[in-house]
Give the backbone structure.
Amino acid sequence: MKMEKAPRLIEVAVKASPGNGRRLRSVIAAGLLLVGSASAARAADPAAGEKIFKEQCGICHAVIAGENRIGPTLFGVVGRTAGSVPGFNYTADHKKLGITWDAATLEKYLANPRAMVPDTSMVYAGLKDDAERADLVAYLETLH
């Protein structure tokens, strides 16, 4: 169902149910859930994520195996233990992070890197837009 139809459904329900408050509340709640879930259900777009990567990450990170720049290569980052790229000098907090990168940990890290790794040398404040972050993670998941 398209989001444009939700307000019309609520309007029809209001006119059709005089005095029936319970049904009206149920219809309004369902309409609000429908509108809210439509944006949450948007599928992440790896192509959009690649564009974000090139604009915001590519100056410091490569996507080629073994090619470290200012930051470590992000080729194969999903499924890799944090702080484990050979030849890259990680900070102490990053080395002891003790996680394997997956979509959830990358989402958290990319939203606010310093919250997860206080001494990170990465001078990136984070990607605040949820949809863009999901797109970026979807792109990183393709790098294998």
